[in-house]
Amino acid sequence: MSSRPKVQFFHDTDGILWSRMLEALQRFAGQCELPDQHISMKDLVGGITSIRSLSSSSSAGQEEGTSLGALKAAAEETAAFYSAAVVQQTVAQLARWAGQLPALFPDGLPMLDQGVSPSSPLSLSLTRRQCAALLAASLFRALPPTDSQQAVCSGWLPDFDLSFVLARAKEKTLCLLCYFVRVTTSSEAYLNEVVSFARRSVDGQALGSDFWRAFLRDSPLGPAEISDGCIEHSWGNLQADFANKYLGGGALHGGNVQEEIRFAICPECFVGMLFCSKMLPNEAIYIVGTQQFSNYTGYGGSFRFSGPYQEQESIHRADARNRRGPCIVAFDALCHPGEKQYSEQLIIRELVKAFVACQGDPEENSGERQNGFATGNWGCGVFGGDPQLKSMIQWIAASAAGRDLVYHPFGDKRVDGLQAVIQALRSRKASCSDLYELLQGNRPNTTFQRILAADGNCTKL
């Protein structure tokens, strides 16, 4: 681990600036903790703004970094859920945690960089307190900017910066505040629970056409079912994150689709954006142990925070590594593949990506195995994928990896025929290779039709 690149902290790179920030954080926390001291929401936001301004390095950064319009609006709305005293104590604790980075990370924080060997996945375990401290540091802008982190990492990193959210995304800011209140009022046992991040790959060269066309000739398609629920509530299964190749995608900007919403309601996922570089085509990233903190409604432009989520602790039992929560797998689909998505080359690309996602967390054996792969219309929104094609690709990949497919269609009419296709292929006892052959040479929205029209051997139309 010592040879891996590490996240840059101000206390390592700029001692003078860190001293000024630490003094400001401690002073602000002390003011918030004074007995019978009531600080208005306006002044709380002003205190955060003042500390953030210490590390602003450009006029553009200063403008967005200190104009916290969404935070101001969200702070006022929290009165419907939390008392002013609770919010004040929450902000004080966040300032304390932000100032404790040197103590919380005495050996630094390793990156999970791209190019990991298939035989040697990378993993990193953080306590909930450490996750909260990193997010608190970002709240106060007490971390060096992404370009400083980029200097030590070979792959390009996502932008781990709360500035846009705090300035312009009120609903995401409400989710963050909800999370912050929960963790700052939690027990020591809860704060010592673990959230792990892992990166693994497969040998893409070995998973070419011969593998899918011939090696899996005797491998039957596994069980598949359709679920009307949400992926995030698919307990006991790997839970798909329809990721951008940069973990989180637009989660800290204006995006409000599947990945961005999952990160907003499970903010511990944001932490991975600090140290997980861009995924290669044969890689996936796993986040285990994070929990949901907010309820929500809507999607895209209609996304809204709808109050604190009451986690049912009995649903998730802590595993041998003290992780209590689902296994989320981030894997990115092709972006705007157009007609080329029906070519064998791009079908194989998606099969490899879905196959590595279905490999599971490297430490899965420390708890109950996730039998199923809970997924849906992966890459079929703004990325322009064909959900009929992608559902079949994911079924093949899950079957090849020994997982059941649990498909969440989200009401997409384009996959209304999925149940009939599953039944037809199961009744024919089709293999993974049989279905792979049927995916060749399709056209938009014709995959299901071609499969249902195939004869009993599944290969002849």
UniProtKB/TrEMBL annotation:
Source superkingdom: Eukaryota
GO cellular component annotations of the record: cytoplasm; nucleus
Broad EC category: hydrolase
Transmembrane segments: none
Biological process annotations from GO: ATP generation from poly-ADP-D-ribose; carbohydrate metabolic process; nucleotide-sugar metabolic process; regulation of DNA repair
Family annotation (PANTHER family): POLY ADP-RIBOSE GLYCOHYDROLASE (PTHR12837), POLY(ADP-RIBOSE) GLYCOHYDROLASE (PTHR12837:SF0)
Protein name: poly(ADP-ribose) glycohydrolase
Species of provenance: Polarella glacialis (Dinoflagellate)
